[in-house]
């Protein structure tokens, strides 16, 4: 998932007072270990990576990865759900300690947060109903395109001049496409393919030839290299001992490194 420059600037402004009150270079690892809790944020609206199940629990690949990392660091994980378009602002305002929510690593984001990972790779894809006649980026001109608010896909679509509608998350995107209120949706490929398969929703898709595959990373506040290093070590140990692959196959059905 992704975020636009204007939203990043708004997030920083909203969190300004909180950030000014903090020592930007303070190392957080010792304080977190003393508390014994790592607060991890995600949208809760991005199945199968993170979503709320019938028991009102936040489950999926992202919380599983975040919980295992916290465990290997000697802490418990506390999962926090929040709107995606304000998620970086919440991190800067100290509402949680990390974002493990399928966030695309971009140079723009790297200016305001530090990243651990990537912990998986994906690519942008365009999804339509069968028989739509939309088979290329040029075919999207004059069509209604649905995207999740605050994702980099939204920024990409605006730059291309598409007529867009924005929504809170993938479930709404799929419903809007199914009901014909948008002609196409743009999303990370893995999540959309799996979600549509789970619903039995028929679709056609094509990739975006203008961009390279991207990595999803874990975002933390800047200025804590010890925290970043220990989280990276925990992630790497999961990949080395087979735990990562077990979680990936459980939630995604494949190795997505």
Distance between the termini: 16 Å
Uncertain stretches of 5 or more adjacent residues: 2-25
- Strand share of the residues? 25-35%
- Calculate Rg over CA atoms: 18 Å
**Class by helix and strand content?**
alpha/beta
Q: How many separate helices?
A: 11
Give helix % range. Answer: 25-40%
Largest sheet at a glance? 5 strands, mixed
* Beta strand count: 13
Give the overall form: globular
Strand order of the largest sheet: 5-1-6-13-7
N-to-C SSE string, H for helix and E for strand: HHHEEEEHEHEHEEEHEHEHEEHH
Mean pLDDT, all residues = 90
Structure description:
The structure is a single chain. With 257 residues, the protein is of the alpha/beta class. It contains eleven helices and 13 strands. It has helices at 5-14, 16-20, 29-35, 61-72, 87-92, 107-110, 152-160, 170-178, 189-199, 225-241, 243-251, and strands at residues 37-42, 45-46, 50-52, 58-59, 76-81, 98-104, 114-122, 124-128, 144-148, 163-167, 184-188, 204-207, 214-220. It has a five-stranded mixed beta sheet. A five-stranded mixed beta sheet has the order 10-9-11-8-12, with helices on both faces. A three-stranded antiparallel beta sheet has the order 2-3-4. A hairpin with a 5-residue loop joins strand 3 and strand 4 (58-59). Helix 4 packs across helix 10. The chain starts with a helix and ends in a 6-residue tail after the last helix.
